[in-house]
């Protein structure tokens, strides 16, 4: 699936419209750069991809294993320094789970598809047309 992002000056704002052909969402500049804080920034979207993938992956796995999970919560923050983007993910799983199950869930969280992608050698090939 390809993500399309568009913006036009006639909108009168800095909001970027996004679509994958089925779903539609929006993003904006960081608040400090003049964006509207009601919309996620591109970094928010990146961090949210990891958080969502973690929760969805654990949800599927816990169901498949019949683990007594009551809830799954993931929070992701980041820090940018000297060309390094460091993400911090905290995962909380509630339910009647012994330490061995929690260890298994941590192993699976570290194998979610977005975690794998972000940990890989990422290459971006860009073309620009007028």
UniProtKB/TrEMBL annotation:
Coiled coil feature spans: none
What the entry lists under Gene3D superfamilies is as follows:
3.30.300.20
Pfam families linked? OsmC
The record's InterPro entries line, in alphabetical order, gives: KH_dom-like_a/b, OsmC/Ohr_fam, OsmC/Ohrsf
Q: What is this protein called?
A: OsmC family peroxiredoxin
Q: What is the lineage of its organism?
A: Bacteria, Pseudomonadati, Pseudomonadota, Betaproteobacteria, Burkholderiales
């Amino acid at each position: 699936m390809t993500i399309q992002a568009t913006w036009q000056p006639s909108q009168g704002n800095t909001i970027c419209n996004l679509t994958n052909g089925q779903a539609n969402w929006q993003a904006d500049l960081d608040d400090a750069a003049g964006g509207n804080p009601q919309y996620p920034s591109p970094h928010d979207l990146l961090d949210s991809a990891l958080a969502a993938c973690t929760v969805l992956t654990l949800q599927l796995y816990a169901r498949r294993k019949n683990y007594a999970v009551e809830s799954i919560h993931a929070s992701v923050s980041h820090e940018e320094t000297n060309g390094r983007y460091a993400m911090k993910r905290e995962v909380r799983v509630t339910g009647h789970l012994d330490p061995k199950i929690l260890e298994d869930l941590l192993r699976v969280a570290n194998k979610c598809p977005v975690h794998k992608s972000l940990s890989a050698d990422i290459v971006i090939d860009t073309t620009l047309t007028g």
